[in-house]
Amino acid sequence: MAGEQQGELQLVVFRLKEQTYGVDIGHVLEIIRASDITAIPGAPDFVEGVINLRGRVIPVIDLARRLGLTPIGVTGNTRIMIVEVGGTTAGMMVDGVSEVLRLSRESIQLPPAVVAGFSAACLQGIALVEQRLIILLDTTRIFRREEKEALQELAKQAQERAAS
Amino acid sequence: MFTEEEVAIFLEELEEKLQVINDNVLILEREGGSPEVIQEIFRAAHTIKGSSAVMGYEKMSTLTHEIENLFDRLRQGEMEVSGTLVDVLFEALDTLKLLKDEITGSSGDVDVSAVIEKLRACQLTCGAGGPGGAPAGGGTVPTPAQGTGPDRLLPAGQVAGTAAGLSTTGTSTGYQTYRLTLELEEAVEEVVREAELRGFQAYQVDIGIDQGCQMKGVRAFLIFETLQQTGEIVKSVPPAEDLQEGRYGPGFTVVLLTREDAGQVHDLVFSIAEVSSVEVRPIRLRPGEKAPLSDTSSKQPAKKEPALSGKENVKTVRVDVQKLDTLMNLVGELVIDRTRLDRFVEVFESRYGSDDLVENIVEISNHLGQVTNDLQEEIMKARMLPVAHVFNRLPRMVRDLAHKMGKEIDFIIEGRETELDRNVIEVIGDPLIHLLRNAVDHGIEPPEERVRLGKPRTGRLLLKAAYVESHIVITLSDDGRGMDPEKIRQKAIEKGLMTPEQAARASDREILDLIYTPGFSTAGTVSDVSGRGVGMDIVRNQIEQINGSVEFTTAPGRGTTFTIKLPLTLAIIRALMVTLGDQVYAFPLTNVLETLTLKPGEIRRVRHAEVIVVRGQVLPLVRLAHLFREKGKEEGKLSVVILGSGDKKVGVVVDRLIGEQEIVIKSLGGYLGQVPGLSGATILGDGKVALIVDARGIVKDAGVEEIIYEVNRAG
């Protein structure tokens, strides 16, 4: 099993907007059905709201929005993947979880240089598995609120306030 | 090396012992050195010395060794308590605290040599003043009987006399020792065996009482009391009832279960007057053997147990608060499930009403409900700490301040044991210190002035904590100058806070409340203790932040009383639940003044802002829907919640009022951070999350002054 730690990676694979993504299983605590999300007024737009996870209030983000895609609506297949990153427990809304996959580190390639910008920072790499492209996401990056973003957020709020 | 846990236990014990020394030195200063007080300090110093030596904290053990020496001499009556001594002791205490910080790493290298020098010098200089002739009574008089304290029961001469009289009948040491061979009944033996398993040692304590003793019953009672402080008495010969009636011969015997060592038990009992001999022998039970083994006499100090075997640490467990929070969350879940079960039971009942099974289910559901409630309550209690955690450090502060300001103050604390949530405890320290400083600095007059005014020379400062309904009320009252509304009126005009006309029109209460204005000070002069005018506003702010309130009453020349009302816990509050769109929001009830329904026509506009008039008062109006950029109800009557914080009031329009409810406050978590307009979340009975509105924030942001200014200008 030592080889697993060095050369292998276990991923939770899920769908989001017709694409297949994967995150390191080490960060994933559980996967639950999406229900009763309470919206938070004034929070960043990619924050879908908060849920009650066995007595804890956990923020949930709309992963699609976080990655700069159009938001997904909540359907019967929508799942919330509860992850723990850097001491924070949070949820990500995804379109459905398909499997847990084992793959070697060699099969992962760095994201192409053309893909740059804000959401590219969340990409860890791309893996080709049986003719499927799986986009590896860096959960730490997804939930790290960069100072720059926070500032942009503040600026945006100030503008809106001035306008209203 | 010692593990982190061992160090933590050591530090906890150290903290406790330092507090004991601190408290007792304060008593020492106030009331002089009674044998009990001296004994307490001696014992605490002794314990620290022992455990710090085991842990290898050499400086600490050297320093406590010096303190112990000093108190040993006090105990022997070779020295007297003096002002210098107390000052040096406080210095030594501060150094010990620094040493403690050194261990935790929050303080650098501490030099103890200076204070040790002082302690030694003190022993030399103060030594001369000891009560000279007392030990002359044959040289063998037991020391505790001649303590220098006020609660000594017999004049020294008389003790010496009795002792001399006795020595003729006694042994060569001047005293008869009382001794008894004890047979333990099976039941007692069982208790002893069980106690041993839990780390207690059983001792047979033989106590001889002076032949000339007048009140044997009282003596026995005192000894029982004293011993019960260290452990439990499981048996006595003769029985306790007889002892308390004074029906016993030259002495009696008890079986004591304790964690103290034999030497300490011996010293404790021996410090009681008219005890002529004490013998402490450990009881060792061997399988099948009943009689106690009497091999170690306590006269030679019993072997020291490794100091870390600790005293109280078996009874308490240190638990991370976070774990308690998690437990609390889980219980919350249980409550939700129970509610659901209740609903299910109802359905079940209506469908299969007559079935036996239904009755079973109803019963189970009810029982589950009770257990859940109890569980919730117990966990809440587990988070509580006695308010002593804050109060204990205050006497020293008051003493130092009083010294500095040349005041004489009798500081009384009541209700130390009152328990409240640890979060509340963390917050109230600062405001309390502030109020105390004020009281010492401007409240209580200098002694001469007090005498001139016909008041007792010593000022009285009373700090009291008590439960009132579901709150904790802390009152701080002084018998000092009080506040004069007239003076404050003058000051307000001087500072331009009010025009003379306004000041004349304002009620005394309104004037007094000016002390909460930032930058306003009633003090004639500014000292380095207080009077700069930063203060009361901060005090009020801090207390309001934890949903508390502060009020005061004052009478010129008679003093001031501050009353701080605090919630028992921060985790649960009463809230007004409202809806907006399809979401539920909670307003903390402490900030809700009233609710109204309005017709849209009652809203007026002042420039760009909406206002309403409530009983002649113009209040700004905020629409929660606008604030949260949600779609609210547009037509029909408006439900308005009037919020207040400080002196500001604001009306908030919501869709519908639901009612009052107790809610458990949860944080939104570090990821979301501070969301404007919200102060947290809570979980409703149906498991949904509702958001808690930051009422104080809304009131603060509403720009009340500008609107009132506008209105005043307009009309």
Features:
heterodimer, A: 164 residues, alpha+beta, OB fold (Dihydrolipoamide Acetyltransferase, E2P), six-stranded mixed β-sheet, five-stranded mixed β-sheet, 4 helices, 20% helix, globular, B: 715 residues, Four Helix Bundle (Hemerythrin (Met), subunit A), Alpha-Beta Plaits, Helix Hairpins, 5 domains, 23 helices, 22 strands, 44% helix
Structure overview:
The complex is a heterodimer of chains A (164) and B (715). Chain A has helices spanning 2-7, 63-66, 139-143, 147-163; strands at 8-16, 19-24, 28-33, 47-53, 56-62, 79-85, 88-94, 96-104, 108-109, 123-129, 132-137. With 164 residues, chain A is of the alpha+beta class. Chain A has one domain: OB fold (Dihydrolipoamide Acetyltransferase, E2P) (Beta Barrel). In chain A, the strands form two sheets. Chain A has a six-stranded mixed beta sheet. In chain A, strands 3-6-7-5-4 form a five-stranded mixed beta sheet. The mean pLDDT of chain A is 78. Chain B is of the alpha+beta class. Chain B folds into five domains: 4-130, HPT domain (Four Helix Bundle (Hemerythrin (Met), subunit A), Up-down Bundle); 186-295, Histidine kinase CheA-like, P2 response regulator-binding domain (Alpha-Beta Plaits); 321-383, Helix Hairpins (Orthogonal Bundle), CATH 1.10.287; 386-483 and 522-567, Histidine kinase-like ATPase, C-terminal domain (Heat Shock Protein 90, 2-Layer Sandwich); 572-714, Beta Barrel (OB fold (Dihydrolipoamide Acetyltransferase, E2P)). Chain B is built from 23 helices and 22 strands. In chain B, the strands form five sheets. In chain B, strands 14-18-19-17-16-15 form a six-stranded mixed beta sheet. In chain B, strands 6-8-9-11-10 form a five-stranded mixed beta sheet, covered by helices on one side. In chain B, strands 20-12-13-22-21 form a five-stranded mixed beta sheet. In chain B, helix 1 (4-31) packs antiparallel against helix 4, helix 14 (394-405) packs parallel to helix 15 (422-443) and helix 15 (422-443) packs antiparallel against helix 20 (536-545). Chain B is globular.
